[in-house]
Amino acid sequence: MEALESNIPKASIIIVNYNAAEWLVRCVKSVLMQTEQDFECFIVDNGSTDGSIATLPSLDKRFIIMELGENTGFAAANNTAAKLAKSPWLALLNPDAFARPGWLEQLLKASSTAPNITMVGSTQYLALSDKPTLDGVGDCYHFSGVAFRAGYGKQIEPPKAGLVFGPCAAAALYHRSKFLALGGFDERFFCYHEDVDLAFRMQLSGGECLQSPNAIVDHISSGISDKVPEFAIYHGTKNRIWTFFKNMPWPLLILLTPFHIAANLAYLGWAVFRKGRFKPTLRGIMDGIKGLPQTFRDRKFVQKNRIISSREMIKKFTWSPMKVVTRGIHIRKLF
Predict the structure, then answer these.
(1) DSSP one-letter string for 269-296
(2) Each residue's pLDDT expressed in tens, for the chain with a length of 335 residues
(3) Handedness of CA 99, 19, 46, 129 (dihedral sign)
(4) Paired sense of beta strands 39-45 and 11-17, if any
(5) FRET partner for 85 with CA separation of 20 to 30 A, picked from 75, 125, 261, 324?
């Protein structure tokens, strides 16, 4: 039994790559420099056409390269690796995120804070910024169904450890058994907002997310540019709608749906004045609505696994609209 257990690594790192040749080697080298070396690492290639995998150096047996041959999406690629992972913990790392040496060690340390910690978020800095600038300190969820990465763009010290709604999946730790029991990332989402959706389901099932100030990564982040790709706008809009209607408990769904509709109309109105945003926002809303019948079918499984009350769930939301607008930090005290 001891020999069998010794073959189980402390963490299974998953890097999902799609045409990230410019950054992938640096990402993998950051994994090699970890103070915690007891890991396995899946590098899952989503049908890249830029020769990403060929840029990698020779790697030891802890690294498993999986070439899927097509772009299955961020959600499906992570799920594929998660099913093969051996460790109790899944450490997700984007190919444009570079882990500082103590990143994995600190994530694992944070996971032992309490038995119901099923997610741990990293402190993310913008890799291309001249000054230390936060890329995010956890994902927050406003009661209207708008999620945001807290602290983005702020040049401040990261907050102390505390509870947040969920981690940004660019650099996050998940309890593998819980991840799989809840179905992993929703593959309908393809990419964007799938981490918020998973965090919502984990919260409903009694899990919590600890935001660690010591597990640090430097992230290139698509958010550094004023021009967000239409692809991201479309999927983010569509998936925001599906997340809300799939996960919100019935009493809150009835109460908060008008606010969610208002939030989406506000995004659409704002998009009118931003070049290239209106069409993908409108298309995302329309496809989000078209997909609601399947979303409500999926909702049955989600609510079946819910163990906390609507009252308890309310406490996990962000209620200040100013925090949404300013990317304000909302970290709840530890137990």
Answers:
(1) HHHHTSTTTHHHHHHHHHHHHHTHHHHH
(2) 333 356 899 999 999 999 999 999 999 999 999 999 999 999 999 999 999 999 999 999 999 999 999 999 999 999 999 999 999 999 999 999 999 999 999 999 999 999 999 999 999 999 999 999 999 999 999 999 999 999 999 999 999 999 999 999 999 999 999 999 999 999 999 989 999 999 999 999 999 999 999 999 999 986 433 345 899 999 999 999 999 999 999 999 999 999 999 999 999 999 999 999 999 999 999 999 999 999 999 999 999 999 999 999 999 999 999 999 999 999 999 87
(3) positive
(4) parallel
(5) 125
User: Which 3 state secondary structure label does DSSP give 48?
Assistant: coil
- Please state, in angstroms and rounded to a whole number, the distance separating the CA atoms of residues 187 and 169: 15
Q: Is the CB of residue 185 less than 8 Å from the CB of residue 75?
A: yes
Q: What CA–CA distance (Å, rounded) separates 324 from 247?
A: 20
Residue 222 DSSP label: G
Which structure tokens are listed for 1? Answer: 């039994």
Cα distance between residue 332 and residue 20, in whole Å: 35
For 204, the 3-state DSSP assignment is helix
CB under 8 Å to 161, separation ≥6 — which residues? 110, 113, 210, 211, 212, 213, 214, 334
CA 102: distance to chain centroid?
20
DSSP 134: E
Report how far residue 17's alpha carbon sits from residue 55's, in angstroms, rounded to the nearest whole number.
Answer: 12
Q: How far is it, in rounded angstroms, from Cα 297 to Cα 39? A: 37
- Give the SS3 label for residue 91: strand
- Do 149 and 141 contact (CB within 8 A), yes or no? no
Whether this model's pTM surpasses 0.85: yes
